[in-house]
Amino acid sequence: MKIALVQMEIKExxxxxxxxxxxxxxEEAAQQSDLVILPEIxxxxxxxxHLREEAVTLDSxxxxxxxxxxGKYQCSLLPGSLPVFxxxxxxxMLPAINKKGEIVNAYGKAHLFGMFEEEKFFAPGASFDVFxxxxxxxxxxxxxxxxxxxxxRYLALQGAQLIVCPAEWPSRRGDGFDLLSRARAFENHVxxxxxxxxxxxxxxxxxxxxxxIDPLNGIIAEGGETEEVIYAEIDLTRVEKVRKNLNALQDTxxxxxxxxx
Length: 261
Description:
The chain has helices spanning 15-30, 51-54, 61-73, 149-157, 174-188, 237-243; strands at 2-7, 35-37, 76-78, 82-86, 89-97, 103-108, 131-133, 136-140, 162-166, 191-195, 200-201, 204-205, 211-213, 219-222, 228-233.
């Protein structure tokens, strides 16, 4: 399976420019890949002052364009997260689109980043389940979710072969991105595709270093700190092969403690 990670530069207060550029990179990558993944909120970036005006719906012209790209090139898409307006609220949402151009899943970011007061802008998602994307059992997470190992374990226990994590992760915490992305893959015997952006926000650079990690903690491919598309081949049968040997998942115990009265 050939995967493309679109590590694009996201510019502040430039929704129209980011959208046009992201679509161009997405279409170029889709022509030579089985799956393409973009970073977190790549249309707006963290310029959230006009979020409600710039949010889209799942049947918006932008989403129809993305679905058309998937169908045209017969390529599965996890086209990063977008601010999506649904049921009167805005979600930081990652849609999944199959090779027919159909939306088969839409994950709203579950863990909102308190340091940036994301709860003032987004509603938290409430779906934590895996989904089938053209025969691949996938799990979706977004950026800050990477810090919650129980979420990744839950997805792995449901049978996830590939867990994706679009992000806007800053350089000043790059060591955390390195450590946590590899840990989530290694402890769950699963492929992790962590797709970061580059550029700056309020003068602070993003880390880049998008990567695909295999179930034994090996980095298959990794980007640098500039815009690029990272291509890699993965063999999904490695998940089953690894789990036949050292398999922490089958040894997992569920301990529920009642709160003290």
